[in-house]
Every structure is written in structure tokens, then in C-alpha cells.
Amino acid sequence: MQALVIAGHGSHLNPGSSDPAFAHADTIRETGAFDEVRETFWKEEPSFREVLRTLESEEVFVVPLFVSEGYFTEQVIPRELRLEGWDIAAWESDGTSATSATFHASDVDKTVHYCGPVGTHDAMSDVIVQRAKSVTGDPDVGEGFGLAVVGHGTERNENSAKAIEYHADRIRGMDRFDEVQALYMDEEPEVDDVTDYFESEDVVVVPLFVADGFHTQEDIPEDMGITEDYRLGYDVPALVDDTRIWYAGAVGTEPLVADVILERAGEAGADVLDAVEQVRAETGGTDPDAVSDADADADGEVEEGRA
């Protein structure tokens, strides 16, 4: 038997913080790819420390639903799962390239494949683009538009900005949007001045956050000037300095994130090829026939937030 564990932060203050984890787990559960699918949280139940004890499967794939590598993915989750021999070097990552590493949890006698966070996977770039399609209602959105990928930014974790820059660079390389810019809440360039960084008359703003909460629903809308008071709501698009701002909300709520979770598990060895195709077809993802190298690896043909 094999199980999938989706590990999120959760919150005692924001009851909606865990919604994306539950939604993506339900989507994956319906594919039947795993004997068990379990959600677990740092701030909610079931906890990281107990989740392995709730599973019957001997083989477990753990995918952190976090935006970047950092304190939670490198210290908290491995410690709470009691991964024997865990060392960050096992990921061989430069801050955005964590893949997976396999450990044994002897107290529960299980093999645990610990994967890199969802937010740094290449497929997240596709989710950001999908988010732009969703908010504009235009499957061909790109020409004539700018795209802002927004992160929290913090000097305490340099990997936070690395993840934002990584996806902005990848999407810029697609030549789909006229302009692509990485912006931040707590460091330069700041999202407050979003219109200063674009010449396009239309700009899609996608926060690389796992769930909607205070930052995405209150701070960023007010900082950009699309509303004076978040309690009054805001239009989409909203006009700011003669620029139409298409504000998308947290990318983690996009249904296609379920595909990224499967990609992570597949690259760690789970048999998920059929599930990936099913989820992509159901969530408006990329062409189901366009199977990535990573998917092929999962099938044996080739090789693998807020932290």
C-alpha cells in the first residue's frame, strides 16, 4: 500500500488557510492513485507529528504545500515526521531545486519519500499562467498583458524571493506576456508600486501564496490601490493610474495545484501517470497528451510555501 500526505501550514486565526490542502487532496483522492490520502498541518489537526501513525500504508509520499524551501520544509516537517538521518544536503538543492529523498521512520516502520515543496516545482509556472487565464476568463491571455508574480519577501529566508524570481524567469521565457515582473510585499521592488513597473495597460497580478488570507485579501489589494478598504471589496479588473489590474488572489487555490502535488509524488517514485492526466483534464491544465519527462520518469520510462 502507498499513501500521499499533503503537509500544509494551517492557521488558528484564518479558518480558510487549510481549504486548498483539503480541496487538492479531494481531487487526488478521486483519482484512486493512492490507497490513502491524508492532509496534515503545523497549526491544525491532524498534526505533522501524528500523521504517520494514522496511516496503514508502508510506503508514504510526503509533499509540503509550501511556497519555498526554508524553515518549515527543511527543519519543522522532517523533525516532526521523525525522518531518521534527515539532512538538507539530501535534497541537493540550490534553494529552488529540491527533488526528493527517502528515509525510514522506524517508530512507525514506514518508508517515507520526502519531496520538495510544491511552490518551487517547474509545473507551478503553468499554474501561475492558469491563474491568469482564470481571472481574465481568456484562455489565450498574454499578448498586450503584463504579469506580476508577487511574493512575501523576507530577509529571514532568501529562498522566499528565489522562488518568485524562478517562476518569473520561467514565464518570461515562455514569451507569452509582454512583460513579467517579480514583486514583493516586504522588499524591493514592492507591489505597492505595481503600475510603475509595467507599460502594459493590462496587468495580471498573481500572489504566490498557498491560501487566501490577510496578505492576499487585505494587504495586497490595499497596497496596490485597487481598494481603499478591503472590507469594501474591489473590482476585477480595477483601474489604478490608467492601468487595469486583474488581481487573481492566492495561486494555491487554483485547482491545477493538485497536478503539481502529483508531479512531486511521481518524481519520487509513485505511480501517478494516469492520475496526472485525469487531474489536468479536470482542472483546465495543460494538454493531457503533453506528458512531461517527469511524468515519464514516474512511469518508469525516464527519471524528479509560506516557508
UniProtKB/TrEMBL annotation:
**Ranges annotated as biased composition (Acidic residues):** 290-307
Its protein name is Sirohydrochlorin cobaltochelatase
Membrane-spanning segments? none
Q: Which UniProt keywords apply?
A: Cobalamin biosynthesis, Cobalt, Lyase, Metal-binding
Among its keywords, does the record have Cell membrane? no
Extract the InterPro entries matched here: CbiX-like, Sirohydro_Cobaltochel/CbiX
Q: Which GO terms describe its molecular function?
A: lyase activity; metal ion binding
